[in-house]
């Protein structure tokens, strides 16, 4: 909680003003019974109308001050709490952007989303409340007690006896509540997760007719959330009746004791009235307490969840001695005895891989499903670090480079073409922010998507739905290729990105790519694509089985021959 | 320092202006009517628990009465015993008061206890209803919406409703009761003072109106911005791989900043304005207190009322303004709940595709005869995606769709499975128009392997079993073996019980497809649809699967989409699509002889492998 609260620091002036204004309001409120006692004791009981009027006007003046303070307070509190929420949200988002994939696996996407919206809203609202109302309650209580002591020490003692017990009780409730609300937020995560999966997998769910099954899954998560919420809230709501009861009983105590004291003449009537009045105010303040306790418990649970993200050690970041002058100039890629395994798995995804791709070369990577092709790709832009060995570009270890410098020279086209909500143009320009219109059109043409774009209702300005759903698979692939080549990278990585293209389009595309002066690594299933490459790497079970060109591999590798045969027409195999 | 002092007053309010413009351009219902409608619908959800709600109401009534009785008796005690300095019968009075306080606390506890149950049940119902409804919406709905934005409705918007229901219903009840009770007692004690106290009511009314007119809109704006932010976060998390490899973190953060700033702006004004309400109430509260003290003092001097009455009145003026204050506060939370609920109802009002399904038939015992008659369809109105499609596939046959990307192949599948409805023409299965058949009943006879293989967060076995929920473990393993997935599954850390991350890291794209195929094997449908089912699988493995697929396809009507032509050449009918029309149709050999488009495509492929 403290760590999260430290985000308030830049707004300490606003907070101080807000608190000061709250104090002002409070002071007025506390003085009022005193004024009233004055009116009763000095004015009414002594039949002095002038005093009644005088103090009446003073009271009204105070009220106006308090009102003005309240309204101004509203501006400062909203400013502080909204800015605070904004800042926490920003640093949370920035933190998440710096996450490695291993970090991502620690939190579900749905949970990260809840943390960035719901949890922050929770804290933000609590903060706003505390700047405006909440602090009033404890202050009212303390102030009320102090005033009561000023009026009459003996009577005030009766009131103050119960207060420490109440605070202990409230602390307990708050701790317990904090834990309960943490589970509530976790259940919210799970529900959110089911929701997200259903949105992402809606086609599958519909095709398999799993509506009822999914509704059941959701209902379970929802039920769980409900049960936890009810449990937490019910605990919170016990506090108010208990507080009210204790305070009311202590008022009776004041009356009883006051009666005795008034009879002996040691206490004035006005004093009893004033103290009863203070006690009622304190009671009123306590009744907001269950609300405060709840808000605080929730805020505490939420800030824990936020800090959990903020405190996650990013296990893949720029090295301290990363040299920002290191830039990719030529695009020579070299793997030296690279071994890699995904965090949390037992088997090697890549074992002892060594190869060189010279600048301007096209290298094809072939291998069975799960042989490590994509894993190999991911080491180049340093999405993961190799466990041993070295990946270097232009002779520089990628770990010595700034990630941004490294990646800005790489064009990556993933297997699953992922696009963002926005226009076609925005999606292409995503690869290069300052891309000119000509560059965008050029990239689109070379990616063989320009004609398709021109047939769209609004051409380049056509809006795409989430993940580009209103395009066909092949169109999405070509758009994501355009996005990669618009930045004219030194290294182009194509991860089976032409699988949905027909042969003709693919051939045109590969031809167009030749115009780019870059090293191309291309993962493919197609021998026809591989044949065009300067070099072919053949992977099997994470090892580099063989390398060479088409002819030499046909000669030397049984696996390659096997792949080759599998792509001939069937009858040919039969007669082979 | 000076800047920091000025900052809070420098927020722009253009967001609200924009909204007004936006609203003016779209036809709108009167706002108050809108609120009423929304409240009515929230009430419909609440009224599931009518019985309990009545009990709560009773408890609120009880606690309110006792809450009024308490101060009244305290005032009496002061008048009768403290001022008059007597003690006779004082103790019994105090004991009686103690008793009242016990019941008072109990009644508060009960009302809260039940109300939480009711509120959370209501929220639960709302969520379930929203979820159920989402599943009845057509695919087109999901194609247009941002996932994270929809998620925000389920969490952030319903959360608003939830927190309001938890406290507001009781508050509104009790405030109203207390208000009525207080006014009656005050009238009875001194009509004159009561009238003086009531002076503030019109002031209150105008103040409230001024404030809520603004907050209502601002809350809506806030929820909308929050939803958009949620959508953006979801997309960036889904697209991490791209963001990282393109090193576009800064760009994404800049976009996020802009969205978060918009949210901050709306939130700032919503909070500021809603913060006015308690302050206004407080002021009016103090104002009436002063009036009572001042004028009460004069009256007491003239002997018209007793000091006790002033004390009681001072107390009552608080009890009078406090419920009004509470009501006003509740009004704010209520507005934020309405803003949230409206966004939920917006989705519930989307026309669901089950709406007219009651008159539709079930489809039993399908032979698998599929016919397209003059089918035309477009996703967007201007350009037609498929035009005048006529085709007939007989039971047990395999049909293949071939053509360049964007030719309309997947669209054919979307129409056949009724993800989208044809614009004109019709599709028949066993001679029955599918638009007369319930969607779920139709899909029950179909098995799909889709282009994007989607896996759920869960174990491997759960993911395969999704094809048929009742499948035994052996059946799952058999299916996995047939799909050539068994060997890689056995290499996973916990084999079939390995948990797959939702975003599929840990296994490759090709392996995902293998799992999808295994899933389809389990489903055992009459009509099998393979949309690029093996596109990410290496050709050697594919060959092995082809053999099994051939077995699987026997006796079923199959539709195959593939770019690798050798996977389709055994089809009984090959339909060559170009720009949404069928340009050629026939068997592989027939089409080769025709030397048309198919021949072209084929020889391209041939040329590349035959050197």
Automatic annotation (TrEMBL), chain A:
A molecular function (GO) term: ATP binding
InterPro entries registered for this protein in UniProt: AAA+_ATPase, ABC1_TM_dom, ABC1_TM_sf, ABC_transporter-like_ATP-bd, ABC_transporter-like_CS, P-loop_NTPase, Type_1_exporter
UniProt domain ABC transporter: residue ranges: 333-566
Transmembrane segments: 51-76, 133-151, 238-258, 278-296
Cellular location(s): Cell membrane
Membrane-topology annotation of the record: Multi-pass membrane protein
Keywords: ATP-binding, Membrane, Nucleotide-binding, Transmembrane, Transmembrane helix
Pfam families, alphabetized: ABC_membrane, ABC_tran
Name listed for the protein in its UniProt record: ABC transporter ATP-binding protein
From TrEMBL, chain B:
Record-annotated ABC transporter domain positions: 370-604
Membrane topology: Multi-pass membrane protein
Superkingdom, natural source: Bacteria
Keywords linked to the UniProt accession: ATP-binding, Membrane, Nucleotide-binding, Transmembrane, Transmembrane helix
Domain ABC transmembrane type-1: 54-336
GO molecular function, one term: ATP binding
Species this chain originates from: Cytobacillus citreus
Membrane-spanning parts: 51-78, 90-110, 169-189, 195-212, 289-314
Name by which UniProt lists this protein: ABC transporter ATP-binding protein
Compartmental location: Cell membrane
UniProt keyword Transmembrane helix present: yes
UniProt lineage: Bacteria, Bacillati, Bacillota, Bacilli, Bacillales
């Amino acid at each position: 909680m403290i760590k999260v609260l430290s985000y308030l620091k830049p707004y300490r002036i606003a907070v101080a003003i807000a608190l000061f204004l709250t104090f002002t309001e409070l002071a007025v409120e506390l003085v009022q019974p005193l004024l009233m006692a004055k009116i009763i004791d000095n004015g009414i009981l002594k039949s002095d109308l002038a005093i009644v009027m005088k103090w009446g006007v003073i009271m009204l003046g105070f009220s106006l001050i308090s009102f003005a303070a309240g309204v101004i307070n509203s501006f400062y509190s909203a400013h502080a709490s909204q800015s605070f929420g904004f800042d926490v949200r920003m640093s949370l988002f920035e933190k998440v952007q710096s996450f490695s994939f291993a970090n991502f696996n620690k939190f579900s996407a749905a949970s990260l989303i809840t943390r960035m919206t719901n949890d922050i809203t929770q804290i933000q609202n609590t903060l706003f409340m505390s700047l405006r109302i909440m602090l009033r309650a404890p202050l009212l209580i303390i102030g009320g007690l102090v005033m009561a002591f000023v009026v009459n020490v003996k009577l005030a003692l009766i009131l103050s006896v119960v207060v420490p017990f109440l605070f202990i009780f409230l602390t307990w409730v708050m701790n317990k509540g904090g834990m309960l609300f943490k589970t509530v937020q976790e259940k919210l995560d799970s529900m959110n997760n089911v929701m997200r999966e259903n949105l992402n997998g809606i086609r599958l769910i519909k095709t398999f007719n799993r509506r009822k099954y999914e509704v059941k899954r959701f209902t379970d998560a929802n039920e769980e959330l409900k049960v936890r919420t009810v449990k937490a809230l019910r605990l919170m709501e016990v506090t108010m009746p208990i507080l009210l009861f204790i305070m009311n009983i202590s008022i009776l105590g004041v009356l009883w004791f006051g009666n005795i004291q008034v009879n002996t003449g040691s206490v004035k009537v006005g004093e009893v009235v004033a103290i009863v009045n203070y006690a009622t105010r304190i009671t009123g303040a306590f009744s907001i307490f269950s609300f405060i306790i709840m808000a605080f418990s929730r805020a505490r649970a939420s800030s824990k969840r936020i800090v959990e993200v903020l405190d996650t050690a990013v296990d893949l970041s720029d090295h301290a001695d990363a040299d920002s002058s290191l830039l990719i100039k030529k695009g020579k890629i070299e793997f030296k005895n690279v071994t890699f395994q995904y965090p949390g798995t037992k088997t090697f995804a890549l074992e002892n891989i060594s190869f060189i791709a010279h600048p301007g070369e096209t290298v094809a990577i072939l291998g069975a499903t799960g042989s490590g092709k994509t894993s190999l790709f991911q080491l180049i832009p340093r999405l993961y670090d190799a466990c041993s060995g070295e990946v270097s570009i232009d002779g520089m270890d990628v770990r010595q480079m700034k990630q941004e410098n490294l990646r800005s020279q790489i064009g990556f086209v993933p297997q699953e073409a992922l696009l963002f909500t926005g226009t076609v143009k925005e999606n292409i320009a995503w690869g290069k922010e300052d891309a000119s219109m000509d560059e965008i059109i050029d990239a689109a043409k070379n990616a063989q998507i320009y004609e398709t774009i021109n047939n769209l209702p609004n051409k380049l300005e056509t809006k795409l739905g989430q993940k580009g759903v209103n395009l066909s698979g092949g169109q999405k692939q070509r758009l994501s290729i355009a996005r990669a080549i618009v930045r004219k990278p030194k290294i182009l990585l194509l991860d089976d990105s032409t699988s949905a293209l027909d042969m003709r389009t693919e051939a045109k595309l590969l031809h167009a790519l030749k115009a780019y002066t870059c090293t191309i690594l291309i993962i493919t299933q197609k021998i026809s694509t591989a044949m065009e490459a300067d070099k072919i790497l053949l992977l099997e079970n994470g090892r580099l089985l063989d390398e060479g060109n088409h002819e030499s591999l046909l000669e030397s590798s049984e696996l390659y021959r096997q792949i080759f045969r599998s792509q001939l027409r069937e009858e040919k195999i039969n007669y082979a | 320092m000076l800047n920091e002092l000025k900052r809070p007053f420098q927020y722009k309010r253009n967001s609200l202006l924009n909204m007004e413009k936006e609203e003016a351009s779209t036809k709108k219902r009167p706002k108050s009517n809108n609120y009423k409608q929304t409240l009515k619908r929230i009430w419909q959800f609440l009224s599931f628990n009518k019985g309990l709600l009545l009990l709560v109401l009773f408890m609120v009534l009880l606690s309110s009465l006792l809450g009024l009785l308490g101060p009244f008796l305290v005032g009496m005690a002061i008048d009768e015993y403290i001022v008059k300095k007597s003690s006779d019968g004082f103790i019994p009075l105090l004991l009686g008061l103690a008793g009242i306080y016990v019941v008072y606390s109990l009644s508060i506890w009960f009302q809260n206890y039940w109300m939480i149950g009711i509120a959370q049940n209501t929220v639960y119902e709302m969520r379930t209803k929203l979820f159920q409804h989402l599943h009845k919406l057509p695919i087109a709905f999901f194609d247009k919406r941002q996932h994270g934005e929809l998620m925000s409705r389920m969490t952030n918007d319903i959360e608003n409703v939830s927190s309001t229901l938890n406290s507001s219903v009781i508050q509104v009840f009790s405030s109203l009761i207390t208000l009525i009770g207080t006014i009656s007692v005050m009238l009875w004690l001194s009509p004159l003072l009561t009238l003086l106290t009531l002076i503030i009511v019109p002031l209150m009314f105008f103040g409230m109106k001024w404030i809520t007119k603004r907050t209502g809109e601002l809350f809506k704006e806030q929820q909308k911005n929050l939803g958009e932010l949620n959508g953006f976060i979801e997309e960036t998390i889904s697209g991490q791989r791209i963001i990282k490899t393109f090193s576009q973190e800064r760009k994404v953060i800049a976009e996020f900043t802009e969205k978060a700033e918009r949210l901050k702006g709306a939130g700032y004004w919503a909070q500021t304005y809603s913060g006015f309400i308690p302050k206004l109430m407080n002021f009016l509260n103090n104002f009436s207190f002063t009036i009572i003290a001042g004028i009460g003092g004069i009256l007491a001097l003239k002997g018209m009322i007793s000091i006790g009455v002033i004390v009681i009145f001072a107390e009552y003026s608080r009890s009078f303004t406090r419920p009004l204050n509470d009501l006003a506060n509740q009004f704010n939370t209520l507005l934020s709940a309405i803003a949230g609920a409206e966004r939920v109802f917006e989705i519930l009002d989307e026309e669901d595709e089950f709406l007219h399904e009651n008159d539709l038939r079930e489809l039993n015992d399908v032979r698998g005869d599929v016919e397209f008659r003059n089918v035309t369809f477009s996703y967007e109105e201007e350009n037609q995606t498929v035009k005048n499609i006529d085709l007939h596939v007989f039971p047990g046959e395999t049909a293949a769709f071939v053509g360049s990307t964007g030719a309309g192949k997947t669209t054919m599948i979307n129409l056949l499975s009724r993800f989208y409805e044809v614009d004109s023409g019709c599709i028949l299965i066993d001679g029955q128009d599918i638009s007369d058949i319930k969607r779920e009943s139709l899909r029950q006879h179909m098995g799909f392997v889709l282009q994007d293989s989607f896996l759920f967060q869960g174990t491997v076995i759960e993911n395969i079993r999704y094809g048929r929920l009742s499948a035994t473990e052996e059946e799952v393993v058999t299916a996995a073996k047939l799909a050539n997935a068994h060997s890689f599954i056995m290499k996973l850390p916990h084999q079939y019980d390995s948990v797959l991350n939702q975003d599929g890291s840990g296994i490759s794209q090709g392996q995902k497809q293998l799992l999808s195929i295994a899933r389809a094997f389990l489903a055992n449908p009459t009509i099998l649809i393979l949309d690029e089912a093996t596109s990410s699988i290496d050709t050697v493995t594919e060959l092995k699967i082809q053999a099994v697929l051939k077995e699987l396809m026997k006796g079923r009507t199959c539709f195959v989409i593939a770019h690798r032509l050798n996977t389709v050449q055994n089809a009984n009918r090959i339909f060559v699509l170009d720009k949404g029309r069928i340009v050629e149709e026939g068997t592989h050999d027939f089409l080769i002889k025709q030397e048309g488009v198919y021949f072209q495509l084929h020889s391209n492929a041939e040329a590349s492998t035959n050197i």
